[in-house]
Write a structure and sequence with these properties.
The longest helix is centred in the last third of the chain and has 50 residues. The chain contains 30 helices and 14 strands. The radius of gyration is 37 Å and the shape is elongated. It has 4 domains: about 100 residues, no CATH class; about 130 residues, no CATH class; about 240 residues, no CATH class; about 250 residues, no CATH class. Helices cover about 45% and strands about 10% of the residues.
Length: about 950
């Protein structure tokens, strides 16, 4: 390895970033040079080759000062150090003592500075404040600072602001924070959620990590400066400094970061969009998703009179009207009419609101792009009952954000939308008049469940509120709040300790940053989504065409009519719903009993008063009791009392098996020699020798005719029953997991333990259902290994099929690529129902789902193209908006007007460049696929004349 090879040890750009082996390789390559590296670090502890040399600047006297922050290791004298740092007051010095380098400061060697006089030297500086404290990214500095006291000099706070220092107070500041330290903390906390406490004291340790120097604590002032800085940046970036009427005239939501991909009339929608035909109008729907988060709570800290600096100006609703509305209507409740298993959460783990001002926050986001809506957040009041009961909070949050919205079509996604949508019109009329939307938009609104919350609901909800089946919903999934909550939850560790206003300001700041990062990433994310949509549309379109070709045209026409009728009115028969989802043991037992009664009427008597079907049913019940008893015995740490109870259960089971054996000897006489009597000690392990347990040869001769066939029918019903129960238990477990993540976390050990116990209980129920299905499957495999049931039922893989119907592990595939286990897709048992009608129903359902999959992906392509168009149109509108803002401040002095105009021009150029950059990224792929997006010609890489979108005759339109 040559001398320079170590310079490239850490690049390794060609190696896989995901391979643990390759990630460790650069460190292994460095190890041979470890000794040299440590030696070079030690070398820097002495003057090195500059020992006993003259000052490198004046070359008159020996140098003993080295600057940590200047480039190079040269030494200079103290006078030259002061001169060279006249404009670098925050550089850190080292002074050579003859034995080692000691920490030093510019103030120790005579440095002082005068601020506030912009041209030339100040003739009337104030007396210096010798201990003026400045907090900078480089550390905490104490400097002698004088202000300009010339006639006409601005106030000292203004002098500080003009040199880029935020004064710690407004009257007679003796401390300040550089814009750089505020900017640095701002970016770090937005990216890494670092608290102000950790950041400030890291700076203190950077200044002195020994505790020998006594630095002044400016942490409290730092908190105030950070809050002001965030607010000022929000006002500046939203153009509020350009308004001649002043910042106080800011409107609700005016400082929010809007989603440019969502529809905004007058900004990014085409002329005449209101009158577009139905086949196009859906592209202009506003799709919203709603959720609540109980991690963003606020503790009662005794802080009073702490309003937000801009209440309702950005992403929080206005506090006063919100609190007044919730106080008036928050007590109203509605009954839970949903089949959802969320009831288990409601009764299983109510949270205590003791010591809280707010129990969390409700949110409204755009469901396509995960941006928080303007005025899309609101506090949840102390003591709110959390499930299915109160909608006042969410109603206000949703409709406050819709003030002034002229959208004709709305889509609402909410994990309890089946409940929330009921009586929504009545509740909307209780809202302030300015918040009510038109009757027609609400009547036309669509209500859906998020895709991975939907399995927490019953079958009716799954069918009627599914985004998979809703026409013109594209591939929207509605799970955006989950991503946003996961991002903001770490901030709650700090915000829950703040005052109400500081909490709002802080979360507002994080929302704006989150929204902006989403916008900046649209260039890559929308292209990636379009590539995926084109690929999946081609795949599912072909699959549907092949499947569709297997049916007669009149059958397809009938099914298409049914789908179209349901699309127009969901009260019509649902093409995706089975009239009978499956059979149960009770169904089969009833039918067998009727058959046996008919046999008796015909004079066919049974050998025992207990019929064959009842005998088999009792055998299955005993088998279930054996499984339960084995499971109870397998539990560890059984007490003496529990052991006594188990023995009593064993004795009872032993007696029941003995009684059942007497009947078995009649219907299965050969088992008298092949079965041993159960022992009272272990009746749970005794083989019952049902027909499915016997060898086939013995089954043919040793069982009453028809007995095996009856067991097949009962086992099929047992399998269906077990699957239904298993799915229900998994839905409950998924709901509990969601509830735990959102509401409990590490906030309470007692509630956490209670929730873990509850989850364990339902986990055990899931496994009991799985074992019951395994028994049915094993019996069917023995009795009828090649039967029609094999087309419907599969062997259960406990490691895969018992996963929750939602993401429960980080390593699972992403939502777009995740596949459900077969247990969620198993069709009904059509072999049990004779006739073509049942067969046709199953085929219709599969046909309708295949058609829906292809259509949703096709709609996704259309909607992504429209979103790409809207993003560029919004950027173009925003650039022009900034150009208009430039000359607005005619009321201020010339320098402020010039600054406002320069900033407006800068922002206009930024949006123009973003538009051009995005189109350059999207254009090659869009044109290669024959897709057309009507972007303005000025942004196209090559200007071409193209026809309007509705005239394009391509497959994806």
């Amino acid at each position: 390895m040559n001398q320079r090879s170590h310079l490239y040890v850490f690049s390794s750009v060609s190696l896989s970033r995901y391979s643990p082996y390759f990630q460790a390789r650069p460190v292994q390559d460095w190890l041979p040079y470890r000794q040299k590296y440590i030696e070079e670090l030690l070398r820097r502890e002495s003057p090195g080759s500059y020992a006993e040399s003259l000052c490198f600047n004046c070359e008159l006297v020996p140098g003993d000062i080295r600057c940590r922050d200047c480039f190079g290791e040269q030494l200079c004298c103290r006078d030259c150090a002061v001169e060279l740092h006249s404009k670098l007051p925050f550089h850190r010095l080292l002074r050579w003592t003859g034995s080692f380098f000691a920490d030093s400061t510019l103030s120790e060697i005579g440095f002082s500075m005068v601020i506030g006089h912009e041209h030339g030297s100040c003739k009337s500086p104030s007396a210096p404040i010798k201990d003026f404290t400045v907090v900078d990214s480089s550390g905490i500095h104490v400097l002698p600072v004088s202000f300009c006291d010339c006639v006409g000099a601005p106030h000292r706070r203004i002098q500080l602001l003009r040199v880029g220092w935020m004064p710690a107070s407004v009257d007679r500041p003796r401390s300040a924070f550089t814009f750089d330290v505020l900017d640095t903390f701002h970016l770090i906390t937005l990216q890494g959620k670092l608290s102000a406490f950790d950041f400030y004291y890291a700076l203190e340790h950077k200044t002195d990590n020994t505790g020998l120097q006594k630095t002044k604590d400016r942490y409290d002032q730092f908190l105030t400066a950070v809050r002001i800085w965030r607010h000022l940046k929000m006002l500046k970036r939203s153009g509020r400094g350009h308004d001649p009427e002043g910042v106080a005239s800011t409107l609700f939501g005016e400082c929010a970061v809007e989603c440019p991909a969502c529809p905004h009339p007058g900004k990014n929608l085409p002329n005449g969009w209101e009158d577009a035909p139905e086949s196009v109008r859906w592209l202009y729907a506003l799709i919203l998703t709603i959720d609540a988060n109980f991690r963003l709570k606020l503790k009662q800290k005794g802080i009073i009179d702490d309003p937000a600096l801009g209440d309702g100006w950005a992403h929080w609703v206005a506090s006063k009207p919100y609190q007044a509305y919730v106080k008036k209507y928050g007590h109203l409740v509605e009954p839970n009419l949903c089949q959802s298993d969320l009831k288990a959460v409601d009764h299983g783990s109510q949270k205590s609101a003791n010591g809280l001002i707010n129990s969390g926050a409700g949110g409204c986001l755009c469901a396509r792009h995960t941006l928080v809506r303007p005025n899309g957040l609101g506090d949840l009041q102390k003591g709110e009952r959390q499930v299915f009961l109160i909608y006042a909070n969410m109603d206000f949050i949703v409709f406050f954000g819709l003030i002034g919205t002229a959208m004709r079509l709305l889509v609402f996604s909410y994990d309890i939308v089946c409940q929330w949508s009921r009586n929504l019109k009545t509740r909307m009329n209780q809202l302030p008049e300015c918040m009510r939307i038109g009757v027609q938009p609400l009547a036309n609104a669509k209500f859906v469940l998020p895709k991975f919350h939907i399995y927490n609901h019953g079958i009716k909800c799954q069918l009627n509120y599914s985004l998979n089946f809703l026409k013109w919903s594209a591939r929207t999934n509605g799970e955006d709040p989950e991503r946003w909550w996961a991002h903001i939850n770490p901030v709650s560790m700090s915000t829950r300790e703040m005052g109400p206003g500081a909490r709002h300001d802080t979360i507002d700041d994080h929302v704006r940053a989150w929204n902006w990062r989403k916008i900046v990433n649209f260039g890559a994310s929308l292209l990636s989504q379009l590539r995926k949509a084109v690929e999946m549309y081609d795949k599912h379109k072909k699959a549907f065409e092949d499947f569709n070709a297997t049916f007669e045209p009149d059958v397809v026409a009938r099914w298409e009519q049914m789908v179209a009728a349901w699309d127009a009115d969901i009260t019509q028969p649902n093409p995706y719903e089975e009239s009978n989802a499956g059979i149960t043991i009770a169904d089969v037992q009833l039918e067998l009993a009727r058959e046996e009664a008919l046999d008796a009427e015909r004079g066919n008597e049974y050998a025992h008063e207990v019929t064959m079907s009842r005998f088999l049913s009792q055998g299955l019940e005993l088998e279930e009791q054996q499984r339960i008893l084995r499971w109870q015995i397998e539990k560890q740490h059984i007490t003496t009392h529990q052991a006594a109870e188990l023995q009593e259960k064993r004795n009872t089971l032993h007696r029941r098996i003995e009684a059942w054996r007497e009947i078995q000897n009649i219907y299965m006489p050969d088992t008298q020699t092949d079965s041993s009597s159960p022992t009272p000690n272990q009746p749970e392990n005794t083989c019952l020798w049902l027909p499915s347990s016997m060898p086939q040869s013995l089954r043919l001769t040793g069982c009453t005719v028809g007995l095996a066939e009856k067991e097949i029918r009962l086992r099929l019903a047992q399998a269906d029953d077990a699957l239904n129960d298993l799915r229900r238990q998994l839905r409950i477990s998924a709901t509990l997991l969601d509830f735990k993540k959102t509401n409990i976390g590490g906030t309470s050990q007692r509630r956490g333990m209670r929730m873990r116990n509850l989850m364990t209980r339902f986990h055990e129920k899931s496994h009991r259902g799985a074992r019951r299905y395994d028994a049915a499957f094993q019996a069917l495999s023995a009795l009828d290994p090649n039967g029609a049931w094999t087309n419907r039922l599969k062997r259960l893989d406990h490691s895969k099929d018992l996963r929750l119907p939602r993401h429960d592990r980080d390593e699972e595939p992403s939502e777009g690529r995740r596949e459900l286990s077969w247990i969620w897709l198993v069709p009904r048992d059509d072999s049990y129902h004779d006739g073509a009608e049942e067969y046709t129903e199953s085929m219709r359902i599969e046909w309708a789902k295949s058609k829906a999959r292809a259509e949703r992906w096709g709609e996704e392509i259309k909607l992504l193209r429209e979103e790409m168009r809207r993003v560029i149109e919004y950027f173009s509108w925003k650039a022009q908006w900034w150009r208009v803002q430039g000359p607005h401040r005619t009321d201020a002095d010339g320098y402020i007007c010039n600054g406002a105009a320069a900033y407006a021009a800068k922002q206009a150029a930024m949006f123009k460049n973003m538009a051009k950059s995005f189109v350059e990224v999207w254009y090659p792929y869009v044109t290669s696929k024959g897709l057309f997006v009507p972007w303005p010609d000025k942004y196209l890489p090559t200007v071409q004349r193209v026809s309007p979108m509705l005239d394009m005759d391509v497959d994806y339109v």
